[in-house]
Amino acid sequence: MSPDDRSSGDEADRTPGVAEELHQARPFHSPAQEALLSLLRTADAAKRRFAALFSGAGVTFQQYNVLRILRGAAPEGLPTLDIGERMIERTPGVTRIVDRLERKGWVSRTRDSGDRRRVYCRITPPGLDLLESLDDPVNEIDNGIFEGVAEADVKRLAGLLDELRARMAEHTTDEG
After folding, report:
1. CA atoms within 13 A on the CB side of 165
2. Of 1.10.10.10, 1.20.140.10, 3.40.50.300, 1.10.150.20, which CATH number belongs to 51-134?
């Protein structure tokens, strides 16, 4: 359903907007504010779906993200700092996340022989097994979130979000 469809048609078929979900009494400051809050609310709803799946497997969203990154980097692995740069949600606590994954046997670490400060992280066979067991359920959630949305609209949304991130990165770089 497009945003324009919210204001037309049968009231029962109307998708509630973020203002209604948040019980917003006053109008938003701008369409940009409304869109951003809607984006954040939607991201939170999606994360909750994944959190339920991941908690059953004994892994957090961030731990799962690190494991996926390392699976993509196998067999060479990655330095801890590189993992942090590739994470969906950037966090200064990558080392702590890797510590937990290592304790669970899903990740191993080795020091670089040329630069002892650099530590390479690699996914282990049990880590690969965990990811394999989650692949189908994760794909089902991915597809379920966009069920009923035209593929062209999904691609357009992805492109718009890419553009927003690029503009925010430019803006952040300009400000220092």
Report:
1. 9
2. 1.10.10.10
With 0.85 as the threshold, say if the pTM is over it.
no
Task: Write the pLDDT tens digit of every residue in 107-148.
Answer: 999 887 777 678 899 999 999 999 999 999 999 999 999 999
